[in-house]
What we know:
By secondary structure, the chain is of the alpha+beta class. The chain has 8 helices and 8 strands, in the order αβββββββααααβααα.
Amino acid sequence: MAFILLFSVVKIVPQGREFTVERFGKYTKTLNPGIHVLTPFVERVGRRMNMMEQVLDVPTQEVITKDNAMVKVDGIVFIQVMDAAKAAYRVDDLPYAISQLCMTNLRTVVGSMELDEVLSQRDSINTRLLHVIDAATEPWGVKVNRIEIKDLTPPVDITNAMARQMKAERERRAVITEADGEKQAAIARAEGAKQSAILEAEGRKEAAFRDAEAREREAEAEARATAMVSEAIARGDVNAINYFVAQKYVEAFAELARSPQQKTVIVPAEMGALVGTIAGVGELVGLARAQQGSPRPTSPPPAAPSAATPVAPRRPRGGVPVTE
């Protein structure tokens, strides 16, 4: 009897727990963790409350959304008892009460939203549920730390429709991305063609400038050569003009020989005729000066140039003309 009396009077409260004390069935005080002594036959332990954070499961339920879509929703809630006396004597079966409170508020919050919002705004649902349930459980001495939506399951037909919608959206984005790529490629090609045209025009401009400069210098050289020839002729030197006439003569025969349409080539009968032609031109120049009154010794007249007479081609047996 002494041992039974001792164990009924001395109470040890473990850490994370609190005991309520009742005197003749009435709550009097709360025992904190540690050793306590009660009045025998008068006081006794009423409720043993867990003061640690607890996790309660919210059962799965079907909820109709604002746009009349049926979804299955469940979740979990984290609670902590802050006042052992209130949690013990103001509500009966605290876990069950909190679970039912979460279910009803979850149905209210989800029912006020459309399906797309329910699927994409879980954080918003959790925040609204936490605010409502924490305010409702405050009189019970319970603090709701957080609420999480664990699963949202729409109907099968809606899931299939969402899959098709997602596929169509992905295809649309792929087409847009491909079109943007082609657009950027076309812009890059056009920019490249523009730069190429600009560089080509710059090249043509530079080439034209160089050609003009070359022609200008060639003209200057030609002018200086002409001036020198004129000065030589003015001094009575005919060799200069003979040189130019002979040069043009040879160039003319060269062009005549290179012509692809020429079938008959005319050449002088003898190469001395070329010199005679040049001397004849020089004599003409001397006569012109004599007529103008400038005295100049005359030279014996050169031999007249012999003209080459083209011979008609003979046609051999093969039918190919031969030039003589």
